[in-house]
Amino acid sequence: MEQEKFKSGFVSIIGRTNVGKSTLINSLVGEKIAIMTNKPQTTRTAIKAIINRPNSQIIIIDTPGIHKPKTKLGKTMNDTAFETTEEVDVILFIIEATSKEIGPGDRRILEKIKESNKKAILIINKIDLVKKEELLSIIKLYSEEYNFVGVIPISATKQENTDIILDEIEKNLKVGPAFYDTEEYTDQTMRQLVEETIREKALKLLDDEIPHGLYVEVEKMKMSKAKTDNKPFYNIEATIYCLRNSHKGIIIGKGGQMLKKIGTYARQDLEEMFGTKVNLKTWVKIKEDWQDTDTIIKKFKPNKK
């Protein structure tokens, strides 16, 4: 029997904010590479997830959620999401099963998919929240708009039907070599993983009006050895930037308790991620209007290769 030829390719996962893209991508990879919160616009840049299978390598690009932008950062996030649809082999369009109609955000995405004329798979998330009749209705609605190569209803949080997605993607890829080492599962640097982990904890712990007004920058990251037992550990120093003085006070908290909590939760995740001890120090500084500052916004633009 002839051995199946190896396939490879790039896949963009696109959808509105808070639709479950990051939850799904972590589930598909089997590693935590995208931060997850219940707040919209959590993902700010395109993150590559590398999935190695026996007969394929699938590179899935998690993109920022489509939303109505109010700042340069917001516009850059939307641009990033739409640009990826032009450069991939397959598009995963994720929507919510609870949708009764095609809203403005989903309509914009649909139009971009039509323009690209790429192979697209419709992923209907949160199927545990609707009845079968409602699900069939939403499938019919979207199938009349575009000739999707596959329609897969899932529950990302319950990991229901998620394995079918990879089979469907693989089926629609071309024969080709692996683009990344089989040991890799993301293109993010360790510094980026640290910054995103700290930001995730802040997003989860802080009031709604603050999180989108902050970003994290690692100032120092160095491997050291403990004097007591000579075991390696990471020395990391990071700054959390916010927009206003009132926000700074909330992030630090009474007696520094909130900042300590953010740092503790982040350190625990990082130690599990890196498999070594981490000494994490965090500071909070004010940087007004950073969301409209070009030099900072460049951080969130994808690198062109």
What's the gist of this structure?
With 305 residues, the chain is an alpha/beta fold. It has nine helices and ten strands. Helix 3 (104-116) links the parallel strand 4 (90-96) and strand 5.
Domains counted in the coordinates: how many? 2
**In the CATH hierarchy, what is the superfamily of the largest domain?**
P-loop containing nucleotide triphosphate hydrolases
In total, the number of strands is: 10
Query: What's the overall geometry?
Result: globular
Order of helices and strands: EHEEHEHEHEHEHEEHHEH
Mean pLDDT metric: 79
Largest sheet: 7 strands, mixed
CATH topology of the largest domain: Rossmann fold
Structural class: alpha/beta
Q: What is the end-to-end distance?
A: 39 Å
Number of helices: 9
If you had to describe this structure to a student in words, what would you say it looks like?
There is one protein chain. The chain has 305 residues and is an alpha/beta fold. The chain folds into two domains: 7-175, P-loop containing nucleotide triphosphate hydrolases (Rossmann fold, 3-Layer(aba) Sandwich); 190-300, GMP Synthetase, Chain A, domain 3 (2-Layer Sandwich). Helices cover 35% and strands 24% of the residues. Strands 1, 2, 3, 4, 5, 6 and 7 form a seven-stranded mixed sheet that branches. Strands 8-9-10 form a three-stranded mixed sheet. A hairpin with a 6-residue loop joins strand 8 (215-225) and strand 9 (232-242). Helix 6 crosses helix 8 (257-274). It starts with 6 loop residues before the first strand and ends in an 8-residue tail after the last helix. 36% of the residues are buried. Residues 34-45 and 65-74 have low confidence and may be disordered.
